[in-house]
Each structure stands twice: as C-alpha cells, then as structure tokens.
Specification:
The protein has 10 helices and 8 strands. With 267 residues, it is an alpha/beta fold. The chain has an 8-stranded parallel beta sheet with strand order 1-2-3-4-5-6-7-8. The protein starts with 7 loop residues before the first strand and ends in a 19-residue tail after the last helix.
C-alpha cells in the first residue's frame, strides 16, 4: 500500500472545529485523514468519520505516536488507545511523530515495537516523521527500508529539505510534506502569485501542485469549506518546467517548526 498523495491534516484543530473540518472534507471527497496523539483530537476525528457513514475500507487514516509513548512497553498500548478514540480496529499508517529526545528511547526499540504493531494487524503501514538523514538510516537499520512507508517532514518552497529528500529517495522512502503552505507565508510570495495568475489558480493550489509534482504527499488543513474544496483542485493543476524551476529557486532554509528540547540536529 502506497501513501496517498493528497490528504487532510488536522494539526491545531480541536473540538467542534476539527469535527466540522473533517466532516466537510469527507463530504467534499477527502478520504485521507492525518491526526496524531499529541493533537488531542483523535476522538473528535473518530466521531466525524463515524458520522460520515463512509465505509472504513474507503478511508486512509494516519496517526502518530507521541514521544512519551515510544518505549516498547508503552507504544502498542498507546496505539490501541488511539484506535479506541478513532473507532477503528486498525490504522492505515502509524508514524513515530518525533525521534526520542537525546535518544532516551533508542531508535531500534521504538521501530521494533512499531513493526510489531504492524505484524499484529494494528496498522497496515508504519513510518517516521521529523527524522534527519542519520535517524532515517538508523530506522532503516532497525526494520528495513521496505517497512518504512514515509518520512513526514516540514517541507515548503522556503524549506525544501533537499538533503533529507535525496536520502529518502535513495532508500525508496516516500516523503510527506507537512506545513506545505508555510502557515500561509508562501501564499503571499510574488513568484507563486504570478504562477497562479498564469494558470488561473490560487497560490495554495500552485504550492500544493508543486509539492505533488515533486513527488511528495501533502496533507493541508483548513477550517473553511471553500478552501477545502479549492485545495482539492490542486490535484488537477499541472505546472510546467519553468514554473517548477522558479519555485525551486525560493529555497531559503526558513524552518518554522523546531521545538526546543524536541527537535533533532537538523541537516
């Protein structure tokens, strides 16, 4: 099973806000939902999915194991709790959300537990998030590259993370871009706006199309129905080589997510 190219993110959305976002997204045709234990919205996501009436086998649900649950005795019980909240007997993809700070839990330990979760049917696929090249190689050494479906990383026109991308591609590990719109910063970029005008598209559609044409999966979020609907149209937008080169030139190592005490030493 490959990681779907386009999904709906739920970061920072809670309570009725996330219920409405997921409900609207599912109504519009989204079938891929990305959540995490630390988002504290798995129960609401599960509620929205249940209310939609969409058969489980038509959905692709991702969640992420928080750092407090990385120990081999905690990971699987925490995953089962996530499943209870999400009202499902399995996830389609389970990620390690962040590597263990200061290597408190060795990569081999939590990747081994995650693989065990897959082998027991709790998740169809496993993967990693916020992993550097070195950490990605450690994960591969623990379980094999063929077991790692994706590395979900901050990636947008202002932070193109080329070193990690190249290492992932060499290992045949798919890259999932989060924060693809850089909290909206890139939507104001004159080059992206110019490309959008030429294609009669929105800056968000251009940015998402750039990421997908670059080979990345994307999981944009929104609380507005019109944006949720508009973002879906990025799947039908084709940028030309000149457009792609112009966006490639926007790289400026502008990282937005690097929590103190949690972030690894970035490449």
């Amino acid at each position: 099973m490959s990681v779907p190219t386009f999904g709906l993110g739920t970061f920072r959305l809670q309570g009725q806000v996330v219920i409405d976002s997921v409900s609207t997204g599912l109504e519009l045709g989204y079938r891929v939902i990305d959540t995490a234990q630390i988002y504290e919205n798995e129960a609401e996501v599960g509620q929205a999915i249940a209310a939609s009436g969409i058969p489980r086998d038509q959905l692709f649900i991702t969640s992420k194991i928080w750092i407090a649950n990385l120990g081999k005795d905690a990971l699987i019980p925490s995953l089962k709790e996530s499943l209870r909240k999400l009202r499902s007997d399995h996830l389609d993809l389970t990620l390690i959300h962040w590597p263990s700070p200061q290597d408190q839990v060795p990569v081999a330990e939590f990747m081994g537990a995650l693989l065990e979760a897959k082998q027991s049917g709790l998740t169809r696929e496993i993967g990693i998030s916020n992993f550097t090249v070195d950490l990605m190689r450690q994960a591969v050494a623990a379980v094999g590259a063929d077991q790692i479906a994706t590395n979900q990383i901050e990636l947008h026109p202002y932070l193109q993370n080329r070193k990690v991308v190249a290492a992932a591609q060499a290992l045949d590990i798919r890259v999932t871009s989060y924060m693809t719109l850089a909290y909206g910063e890139v939507l104001k970029d004159p080059i992206i706006r110019q490309i959008a005008e030429q294609h009669q598209a929105t800056p968000a559609q251009v940015t998402l199309a750039w990421a997908m044409q670059s080979g990345y999966a994307v999981i944009p979020s929104s609380t507005r129905r019109e944006n949720l609907a508009s973002n879906l149209k990025a799947r039908d937008l084709h940028l030309n080589d000149e457009d792609m080169l112009k966006i490639a030139g926007l790289e400026r190592a502008h990282r937005l997510t690097s929590p103190a005490g949690l972030a690894p030493q970035w490449d």
